[in-house]
Design goal:
With 264 residues, the chain is α/β, with parallel strands linked by helices. 39% of the residues lie in helices and 15% in strands. Helix 5 links the parallel strand 4 and strand 5.
């Protein structure tokens, strides 16, 4: 099982600052491509959905805490059921048993995840939590029929090399993200992202059965459009400016205290 060297899961619990109460943007994005995801399953899933399969296994990588992950899983199950009916012209078959793996970092709030799951009377699947970084293999080979991840792969496994080195041209001074305004910073992030995606895809290639699917949802930018010119880029840069001002104020305060302490 792969371990995350620096592990920063989404905010746990169910208070006003938790991911549960601050993930409407993510579910809106998931819903916006819901029909495309459904069609992808119906058209691209290359498995014989007959009774011999027995148990159909789904994995949500980077599940965080509900309710988004439960919504996604149910949508996948509904699409698989529809495809099975379509493939066999409505012929009555023994229903699948569904097993779902919810994966996230080891210090993800799995307690809240399972505490907020749908009532057992509504669940159509057996579920299990799988702690571990998805940048490595977290499940046995040929286990998963459909893998899913949404708005996760932009989280890197490590801080890109040199972006926090004051003596490097790739030092990301005064910014909290890669907004494409400094070429050397952009290159460093690309190198780290390429490494991480290679690990992610190699791990999924081991876990997903032949003919299965891996569904990856996330944000993309057209070539030539820098992040600092987008709404999200402007928003995060503004937050970064606020944090920088706060940090400068703290440093100034400490310097003043030190000065007066040194004089007394």
């Amino acid at each position: 099982m792969s371990a995350f060297p620096r592990s920063y899961p989404m905010s746990g619990g169910d208070d006003q600052h938790s991911y549960i109460n601050n993930s409407s943007y993510q579910i809106a994005a998931i819903n916006s491509v819901g029909e495309k995801t459904r069609q992808c399953i119906i058209e691209k899933l290359d498995l014989p959905l007959n009774s011999d399969l027995g148990t159909f296994r789904i994995a949500d990588y980077g599940c965080s805490i509900g309710p988004n992950t439960f919504h996604v899983v149910q949508s996948i199950i509904d699409a698989v059921k529809f495809k099975q009916l379509e493939d066999y012209n409505g012929k009555s078959l023994t229903p699948f048993e569904y097993q779902v793996f919810f994966n996230d970092q080891p210090n993800n709030d799995f307690n809240t995840l399972f505490r907020t799951q749908p009532p057992s009377s509504e669940l159509e699947y057996f579920l299990a939590g799988v702690p571990g970084s998805f940048h490595g293999q977290v499940l046995p080979r040929n286990t998963v029929h459909i893998g899913h991840t949404s708005y996760t792969t932009h989280w890197l496994s490590n801080v890109p090399e040199h972006v926090d080195d004051k003596n490097s041209p790739a030092w990301n001074k005064n910014y909290i993200q890669c907004n494409n305004s400094i070429e050397e910073v952009t290159k460093s992030y690309k190198v780290q992202f390429t490494k991480d995606m290679k690990l992610f895809l190699e791990a999924r290639a081991e876990e997903i059965v032949p003919g299965g699917l891996m569904i990856v949802l996330g944000q993309c930018l057209p070539d030539g459009v820098p992040l600092f010119k987008t709404v999200q880029g402007i928003l995060v840069d503004t937050i970064g400016d606020c944090l920088m001002d706060m940090a400068k104020s703290v440093r100034l305060y400490i310097c003043i205290i030190y000065f007066f302490n040194a004089k007394t």
